[in-house]
Structure formats: C-alpha cells, structure tokens
Write a structure and sequence with these properties.
Jelly Rolls, 4-stranded antiparallel beta sheet, about 150 residues, alpha+beta
Amino acid sequence: MRHFLTLAITTILLIGSSQNAFSQCKNFTKKTCLPTLKPYTYNGQLNSAVLAEGDVAELMLTFHKNQKYRVSVCAEDMIGQVQFKIFDTNKKLLFDSGKDSPKNYWDFLSNATQQLIIQITVPQELPKNEILKTGCVTILVGFLDE
C-alpha cells in the first residue's frame, strides 16, 4: 500500500511539473518566438520541449510542393545558442545553422512534397559534474501567402 501511495504521489508531481513546463514553453513561444516568423504566416503547429544542456532532439515535419517556408528555432537564453540542422529522409544535410553566420531560421522553397528532419543540439557549456540548465526550445514553421 505504501509503494502504491508513493507511486501515485510521484505520478501526480510529474504530471503537474510537465503541465507547468508546457505552459512556460507556450508563453515563451507566444512572446519571443512567434515574431521571428514575420513576414511568414505561422502554420499553427506548436513544436516545443524543455531540453537540457547536451540534449539532441529530432522532429520530422512535412513540407508541400511549391510553397515558400521559414523554419525558425527559438530557445531560452539560459541554455545558450542552440544549433539546428535540417536533413532530408536520406540524411542528406540541407541546412546547418552553425555554418558561416549562425542564424535561428532557414527560408526555402520546397520543390516537392517531402518530409524533413529537424535536429536540435543544445550546447553543454558546464563541466559534467555541474547541474545542467534546462530551457524551452521551440520549432516554428511559417509559409508565405502569395
């Protein structure tokens, strides 16, 4: 019975903390990230997560033929300058935000309806024995209305 009670309390705490993290990410996205899409129109899909230093995350998204897009990656300052790469499904690199002049978005024309993989890397700036910082990372997609 005691084990069940401990498990129930732990579950409630985890659900509550994940809801709080989601709410914080949603507010961060609205205030800070959405303006980075202009002049593109936000597609309405919220792709965000709380990531820690050293994390690598991937997301696969669909892009339609003959449409101009902006993929924007936005992260809270506390976790540093995240880098992102975009690959096709054959793992061919299409864009690397760290090359040349680092930037947090990529504008492109999709020549075919295709799925692309967005890979996010959060830098690890502290030695491994320190407490890792966490923060919200959001991937937004916008399209041009022409």
